[in-house]
Write a structure and sequence with these properties.
The structure holds 2 protein chains of 2 kinds. Chain A is mostly beta strands. Chain A folds into 2 domains: 83 residues, Immunoglobulins (Immunoglobulin-like), CATH 2.60.40; 151 residues, no CATH class. In chain A, 0% of the residues lie in helices and 59% in strands. Chain A contains no helices and 22 strands. In chain A, strands 6, 8, 11, 12 and 13 form a 5-stranded mixed beta sheet that branches. A 5-stranded antiparallel beta sheet of chain A has the order 18-17-20-21-22, with no helix packed on it. In chain A, β1 and β2 form a beta hairpin. The two termini of chain A are 62 Å apart. By secondary structure, chain B is of the alpha/beta class. Chain B has one domain. The chains are: A mainly beta, B alpha/beta. Chains A and B meet through β16, β17, β18 and β19 of A and β1, α2, α4, β8 and β10 of B. β19 of chain A pairs antiparallel with β8 of chain B.
Chain lengths: 291, 227
């Protein structure tokens, strides 16, 4: 504490509050130095409150590795020029800040440590408590319950001699087709089984192909933006009027990789697909072999 | 003097090509965070799809798979996919039998020796309006009388159409996504030109033509491998 000016009725002083100072009230009183004419009598106490920044929440509290996540940090005593720390591998760009809310972009590097990061706000030389921000790694596909696909698996649809191939969203993939298909619904989840929101590319590849149409399907890639859930459609057929023969079918395994930023992640999920006509009977089985 | 003029023309053409291939993409979405892209154990088709997706450019690739041939897998480092000419050079440096060309803003990787016959078939009229599905456009092209006739002529059997993943709206929310539809028209265009128009209308999709030489027959497959 440094006194900058004083009169008989007023003292002006600066309090330097240490970064580690506990928040809360302090009792302050004035003590006059003893002298020949003055008795050393302390004044009554007044209260001075030490305030430090406090973070109450961060939304969202998860973000995809290799991506940028826009977050909102709520709390108090952020002042006018706060800074945010989110640990190694996360660059924080503040877009706007008020005393109670900070909007920022968390740029998560592809080599950022995964899992929980401590997020703190520093204002006026004081650092807040920390809250967790979880860096997500794509891990697997989880079946997703959907009105058109209870338990994540839609009904077997046979279009013979002709009909439309329709996704769970109602999007018509192709018209005037002949064959068989089934829709399935998935959510991309992280190492804790939680939904992943972000921009990423899903690549599916196919192995162990056996069927009527060698050498089998190709890899396909799709880009997904924040908020995405996933639907896959397994169709075997041709533009009508050509239809599948009695034993034209295929089986294969599906494997998946996710590319986010500079990183590529192989999902644990392996799906076995059996589709086509088997001795005249239509089938489209989509079984998760490895979750 | 004559050599200098040729050199100047070549340099000017190169500048024009780079200028064209670096134009802003039509498609929406997050641009690639610029930097090196590692392509590991991928086919040429997958490598092209990766590069074009990063650069937000439309494209296509035509490949003929000889009987008994095993597909080569690429492992390479593309310095910056957004600098697409250099990126494509890197990709095909490992597949010397292919070349890349740029036509009306669409990148094509094609065999150096001979283009698959079906891609050169001329379609008198291709017209599709308000079409939501890229696959529907391909199916419509395959159903055109010229393509059907050429299939018979070239002894080509079609593989089934392949579909794949799509974004799924959350069951509890209304879709706020704008439904995009595509209009594609082409008169007296080759099959390859129609495919290029389809991916250009999308913005940054990639078509792939694969022809497989089997024991007694040939099969082909046209698909949209990236969108």
């Amino acid at each position: 504490m440094t006194i900058t000016s004083k009169t008989d009725t007023r003292i002006e002083a600066g309090f330097t509050i240490a970064p580690a100072a506990p928040a809360g009230p302090r009792l302050v009183r004035v003590v006059l130095p003893a002298g020949p004419d003055v008795l050393s009598l302390p004044s009554n106490f007044v209260t001075f409150v030490v305030e430090v920044p406090t973070v109450t929440s961060i939304t969202p509290s998860r973000g995809l590795i290799g991506s940028t996540t826009a977050v909102t940090i709520n709390g108090s005593v952020f002042g006018t020029n706060p800074t945010v720390q989110a640990g190694s591998g996360i660059t924080v760009n503040i877009n706007s800040a008020s005393n109670t809310q900070i909007s920022a972009n968390f740029v998560v590097a592809s080599n950022a440590p995964t899992g929980n990061h401590n997020v703190t706000v520093t204002a006026g030389g004081q650092t807040s408590n920390s809250v967790n921000f979880f860096v997500q790694v794509p891990t697997s596909l989880a079946r997703l319950n959907h009105p058109g696909a209870p338990g994540g698996v839609g009904p077997l649809v046979v279009i013979d001699p002709s009909g439309n191939v329709v996704t769970l969203n109602g999007t018509v993939k192709a018209t005037n087709m002949c064959g068989v298909y089934r829709n399935v619904a998935y959510d991309l989840v992280d190492q804790q089984g939680q939904h992943i929101d972000g921009t990423y590319t899903l690549t599916e590849s196919f192995t162990d192909y056996q069927g009527s149409f060698p050498p089998g399907p190709q890899t396909q890639s799709f880009s997904f933006t924040p908020g995405a859930l996933l639907t896959d459609i397994h169709f075997l057929g041709f533009p009508a009027p050509q239809c599948l023969g009695s034993n034209q079918n295929e089986t294969f395994r599906q494997r998946f990789t996710i590319t986010a930023g500079q990183g590529t992640y192989l999902l644990t999920t392996v799906v076995r697909v059996t589709i086509g006509r088997f001795s005249g009977t239509y089938r489209a089985d989509v079984v998760i072999e490895t979750p | 003097m004559c050599q200098c003029s040729s050199l100047a023309v070549l340099i000017l053409m190169q500048i024009l090509i780079i200028g064209v291939v670096q134009e802003q993409p039509k498609g929406s979405g997050k641009p690639y965070d610029r930097g090196p892209m590692r392509i590991e154990q991928k086919s040429l088709t997958e490598g092209l799809a990766d590069v074009l997706r990063a650069a937000r450019k439309p494209g296509g690739i035509a490949r003929i798979h000889k009987r008994g041939s095993v597909e080569r897998k690429l492992t390479t480092l593309v310095n910056d996919p957004v600098r697409i000419a250099a990126a494509l050079d890197t990709l095909i440096s490992t597949e010397p039998e292919y070349k890349w060309v740029l036509e009306n803003g669409v990148v094509n990787i094609l065999p150096k020796k001979e283009l698959p016959s079906l891609l050169s078939v001329q379609v008198r009229i291709f017209e599709a309006k308000n079409t939501a599905s890229m696959h529907d456009l391909v199916a419509k092209l395959l159903a055109s009388p010229e393509v059907k006739k050429a299939q018979v002529e070239f002894h080509l059997e079609a593989n089934p159409l392949r579909f794949g993943f799509d974004r799924l709206n959350h069951p509890s929310t209304e879709s706020t996504e704008e439904k995009r539809t595509l209009d594609v028209q082409c008169r007296n265009c080759t099959v390859r030109e129609v495919l290029n128009r389809i991916v250009r209308a999308h913005g940054f999709a990639v078509w792939a033509y694969d022809e497989y030489e089997l024991q007694e027959t040939k099969r082909f497959q046209i698909g949209i491998v990236s969108q």
